[in-house]
Write the structure tokens for this entry.
Amino acid sequence: MAADAETMARKQLGEAERALKRLTQELERATAGLRSARIDPGKLRSAHARVHRFLKRHRNLARMAGGRAFDSLSEATQARLLWFEREMAALVAAMHKGRWVERSADLDPARDPDRIIADIERARRQWSFQGLGTLKKHLEAGVTHAKDGGMWLGLVPMAIFLAILAAMIHEILSRRPKD
């Protein structure tokens, strides 16, 4: 019975970690337009939906860390499960904070581009997350394209949010405990 729980946990963790890597790649592709001001709205919506599906699909795995079978797992699997539980909680928190960023970066053609950068800086300080520094540079380069309005302007909040999530997931994966 304990061997079955171990095998199942390892299999689910492996699937979740591979899904997290794929999600990171999709988020990075979706937000690549920040650098060139060529944002594809379809890619952004798809990536946003995938984040929600990932969190919904793997929430039971995160709950397994508190389950009865947890004690029967090996120490390595327990460490990976605890890591996954903690990082899932961080992603859920990021989704909620991301809604704040989307609201605060709600742009209109009259909005001062410097104010956009200030919003990103405020989010960076609030999260103390290094990935936002790079995002700020890309956004500063793209703001000149946004001054004349157009489609790009309306997609900036979602792109900002997805770029932040991609950076967070990349950071999460780099801290993953090894077997």
Confidence is low (pLDDT under 50) at residues 99-110, 127-132, 141-153. Residues 2-174 form one domain.
